[in-house]
């Protein structure tokens, strides 16, 4: 009786594994291939795009408001979003808006103000791949749910795959951990699906879960609720400047320059990234992002200042100072770095690359197994 229940459970698990695999297979394969391409995005950009670098000089860097003025001349009519600095790298003035939509970056020498490159990011290769990986090159409200749903199916496929893989006895387990390369191609294909799937499932589960956190708000809130011990997810709330103090800043240095200089003076010998956000209007706060490890994002401190009084404003959401972040906040911050493997440096990216490659192969090898069995029955 117990064996019959086990057999029925495995049978229906297998049926769900089969049909969900057939439904989501193309999308999973697509996500795996684009994930492979994006794994070493930053490293490839650094090799192929020399304008991202600027020789370190023994003189002061140009203030952000002046770099913005130079960049504005290269992109008239567009509003700057932020000005970024990093030792040994060119400064980046980012122009980003949603309506009308545009995304440009002006790369400048931070010591001379020389414009090194004016780049439309909508034409950037990796940006195009990212838009496919996130939205399938469709409107976000259409493409994102399709890929997120496929990722949810893939998560079930990983778990159900473990159930189906699990050997009945010790004798059967000997065949589940290695690929029999000298066998016929059908057996090799079967082993590629099962053995590689087993070894990479543990990595792919993390990639799938972090992808779902970005894809579904309900999933992100659920993970936060579990990791925080039952607390609701903190919503990002915009910080605003006191507009009654507008006139008090007249005749003084630009607020973003003062805050940038203050940050630089407080961090002697600092080689990480500093990004000063340009206020959109009189009530916007100025955000200063300080990232000591530019290979990742989660360690950054985000400071918010009143642009008129220059007074620092405390925030309660996850993206404030790292020292104030709870365990759940830190997990939220780490999500993207875990997804791409950057949390573990180059070894982590290599693992993420291999996992994405195997993820792309699983729908293909799985389909070949199903096709072979179907033909055998016929």
Structure description:
This protein is α+β, with helices and mostly antiparallel strands and 378 residues long. Helix content is 53%, strand content 12%. It is built from 11 helices and 8 strands. An 8-stranded antiparallel β-sheet has the order 4-3-2-1-5-6-7-8, covered by helices on one side. Helix 1 (2-39) packs antiparallel against helix 4. The longest helix is centred in the first third of the chain and has 38 residues, at 2-39. It is elongated, with a radius of gyration of 25 Å. The protein starts with a helix and ends with a helix. The model has no long low-confidence stretch (mean pLDDT 92).
Please give the number of β-strands: 8
* Rg, Cα atoms, Å: 25 Å
Helix content: 40-55%
> What structural class do the secondary elements suggest?
alpha+beta
pLDDT < 50 stretches: none
Order of helices and strands: HHHEEEEHHHHHHEEEEHH
Structural key phrases:
378 residues; alpha+beta; eight-stranded antiparallel sheet; 8 strands
